[in-house]
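[step 3/7] inverse_fold.run input=structure_tokens len=142
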């Protein structure tokens, strides 16, 4: 019988001892030119829990996944989504984010509704927004 190894969350913060990355916790990274502005957005507007600040990065908890927002001199913005959240109630989430000050992106030809929500051919609904440095983020419901 093969014994299952515990993940970081199961082993009190210690990384899993596996050579396979598929069995270890991921860390995601974003770049910013301004820690204070990024901290206000991710911690204040998006309501992510701040874990740490060390002068090199501000670290947030993404529901058990670490988000490290690192400081750079110039952010090179990707033209595609770099971070997204799966949400249960898309219209309610978009409404709450809008009230919190998030501006949703609009794309010509996508047929987004009045709130900026696009429905993909398979039924998934997606809405895109940017962080203060221009990184493209999204919420989706499937």
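[step 3/7] decode complete -> sequence:
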């Amino acid at each position: 019988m093969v014994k299952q190894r515990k993940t970081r969350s199961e082993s009190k913060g210690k990384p899993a001892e596996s050579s396979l990355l598929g069995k270890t916790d991921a860390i995601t990274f974003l770049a910013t030119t301004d820690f204070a502005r990024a901290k206000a957005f991710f911690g204040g507007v998006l309501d992510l829990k701040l874990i740490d600040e060390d002068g090199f990065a501000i670290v947030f908890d993404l529901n058990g996944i670490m988000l490290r927002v690192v400081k750079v001199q110039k952010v090179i913005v990707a033209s595609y989504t770099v971070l997204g959240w799966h949400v249960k109630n898309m219209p309610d989430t978009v409404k709450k984010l809008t009230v919190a000050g998030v501006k949703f992106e609009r794309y010509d030809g996508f047929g987004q509704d009045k709130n900026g929500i696009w429905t993909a051919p398979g039924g998934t609904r997606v809405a895109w927004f940017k962080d203060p440095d221009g990184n493209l983020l999204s919420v989706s419901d499937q």
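[step 4/7] annotate
Confidence is low (pLDDT under 50) at residues 1-9.
The first helix runs from residue 35 to 45.
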